[in-house]
Design a protein that fits this description.
alpha+beta; single chain; about 350 residues; about 15% helix; Immunoglobulin-like
């Protein structure tokens, strides 16, 4: 059978590192992105702070037909994590939800980085339970084909219907309902609203094993993720195992998913600058995970404007000492300027 179990249910693997094990996985966002600058070709402008997602694994043993016992896998995670991959998808949201989230965080009322379960709820499809559970290889093909289809990076619009053509109301309503994947307050999030092709950088990452709160923990760190458009967004995370194949399945099932907190991507001229790195970011860097860590705030550099109270002699000296470069600046120089003002 090719049907996949609902996301979050136990999966029994028949081959690979997890062969013979019935496994259930959980994802939760430990650190959400707060802001970013629109991606430009001269510098990557990754999301800040880097999103961090925790993976928890539970071995499931059936006691009888009605009961089962779960035990979290805590030991030897570095060898058992082989094959796990986490995929990030991008969804736009109304700016009002980002403003509410920012106000809540500023008041200190929220103690969790990611959006709470009450704010985002996963909607169960009414048709096939596997229609939203993509194998990562198929997902890569879909995103690559959309990204390479033309200069526009916006999500594809549905094909136009000839004038006067009849539609099936029941089928249309059913399709619209099954396309709903989550709710953010009163806002409905649909699969077709995904703008994942506008993500730049590493959308698929492998886990790192760190010591977190006294125990070994698997985390996915999105330190190389940027967005090609401005707006307010959330990320959806989905985890697969590409080395272990479940019994009686030809597709790789989604083992777990979660939605992250709201963040905003600014244009260059509106970008407020980067705050110091979070304590979690600094801590993760101690384990050899590659990410950018800053001790101090980094504000956006503004273009220099001639001051009205500058001394005439200093302005004359500056203009007389200006020379024309014999060759254009090296691309490596512009690449190293993380806060360049050029889009």
């Amino acid at each position: 059978s090719d049907s996949s179990p609902p996301i979050g249910r136990p999966v029994r693997f028949s081959t690979g590192p997890m062969a013979g094990i019935a496994l259930r996985a959980e994802l939760d966002e430990l650190q959400k992105a707060n802001l970013g600058r629109r991606f430009a070709w001269k510098d990557k402008r990754t999301l800040d702070p880097p999103p961090v997602v925790r993976l928890r694994l539970f071995e499931v043993n059936e006691v009888d037909a009605y009961r089962r016992r779960e035990q979290e896998i805590r030991g030897d995670l570095e060898t058992k994590c082989h094959g796990f991959v986490c995929q990030a998808d991008l969804f736009p949201i109304p700016e009002e939800y980002y403003v509410q989230s920012a106000q809540t965080e500023s008041l200190g009322a929220s103690t969790k980085s990611g959006t709470s379960t009450a704010e985002i709820q996963r909607v169960i499809p009414v048709m096939s339970p596997s229609n939203q559970r993509l194998c990562p290889h198929r997902a890569v093909t879909r995103f690559t084909s959309e990204w390479g289809s033309g200069p526009s990076h916006a999500p594809r619009k549905p094909a136009s219907r000839p004038r006067g053509a009849a539609t099936a109301p029941a089928a249309t309503a059913t399709l619209a309902h099954t396309d709903v994947v989550a709710h953010l307050g009163q806002h409905t999030i649909t699969e077709c609203s995904s703008c994942t092709p506008t993500l730049a950088g590493a959308k698929f990452v492998s886990p790192s094993c760190i010591d977190y709160k006294g125990s070994s923990t698997l985390i996915f760190v999105y330190s190389d993720l940027a967005v090609r458009m401005t707006g307010t967004f959330i990320l959806r995370y989905r985890v697969f195992n590409v080395l272990s194949v479940p019994a009686d399945m030809s597709m790789l099932p989604v083992l777990a998913e979660c939605y992250g907190g709201c963040f905003k991507v600014y244009s260059t001229k509106d970008f407020p600058g980067l705050p110091p790195s979070t304590e979690l970011t600094k801590y993760i860097s101690l384990f050899g995970v590659r990410l950018n860590s800053r001790e101090h705030e980094r504000k956006r550099r503004k273009k220099a404007s001639p001051s009205s109270d500058a001394k005439p002699s200093s302005r004359i000296a500056t203009s007389s000492s200006r020379t024309v470069p014999s060759s254009p600046p090296s691309p490596a120089c512009s690449d190293s300027c993380e806060l360049s003002d050029v889009d």
